[in-house]
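Entry 14. Structure prediction run on the chain below.
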Amino acid sequence: DPVHERQLVFLLHVSSSAGSSLCALALAQRCARVPACSANCNLNCAHPWDWRSRCPSSICPAVNQTRRCRPPFRPGCAGLRAFVLKRNLTFVASETMLDSPSLCAGFAYVTVIRHPVERLASQLHRFFAQPNAHLHTALSRRSLFNVSERTSLMGTPALDNYLTRLLLGPDAFFLPLGGVNASHMQAAQRVLDRFAAVIPLDDLNGKGIAWLRAAFGWSGGLRRRNAHGATSTPLQPQQAAAAGQALGAEHARLTQRRGRRLAVQPRHTLGQRSLRILHELNRYDIQLYEEAVRRFRALSVHRTKRMAIRQPDCKSLKPQCTESKRSIGRLVSTHLGNKGQ
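Output returned:
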């Protein structure tokens, strides 16, 4: 196939689901070309908080309307395609919702998904010293679209069937709390059906890597299982008490102010009631996850056909992200302490 007719890998990066690890693997490929040399490979204006440009003024705080990001390409599939061809990109990622459920031609879409409640628990424990209090405050509001980059991952979309909302775009992403229903899940499943691969996080470092090698011709392996070093076993309500002690010790936070002695700020963990609420609220995403696990584990990697993936001529390209590759490697090793490999 002519190079311009080959597909380019597009990662739908679900936050806290190994997207940074997959970016690092993509960067390690021969002649890799990505949008940005950083810990992830997100397109500009495709970060978790970049829903602002589409958020209705009736539900978004006014400050959001003045902080909208301008993409470096024209809206739509044609603009994105022209952008990646002009820059000879081989891999792009988006950590926010898709523009629409209609996927762009010329891209091989992949995503790594994690059990929805385990993903949420990981983020709540990472972001907040009192995750139960934050969760119940957020759940008390019908629509919560925060202005800060950190808490954009903890608003209404993130707490209520985040994967379904990401897949269906603006029409579903801005629904109020409890607005996602079975019809949305079915529509989201039809979008996932058109992905080249939907890889469960638990399978990424084994069968997932084997699939990427077979389908994309990639080489090498992952440095970490997910971006934050957490395991990918779903937290059930009855496990909360046992997990609490371990997580509380692991996430104890040290603070220092103006030369004062270091003091430990204790961190709480999600209780059984919080976990039960999250399981019930995210029941549609859980069904999507369980179906993805079933399908991927039934897949035969040996029968996977090599896809025509874009690989530009190395001789015509200047090196990209050489220092970033080393930095990302150091970041991974330092952050995780080589755990979970």
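DSSP finds 13 helices and six strands in the chain.
Filed with the rest of this week's runs.
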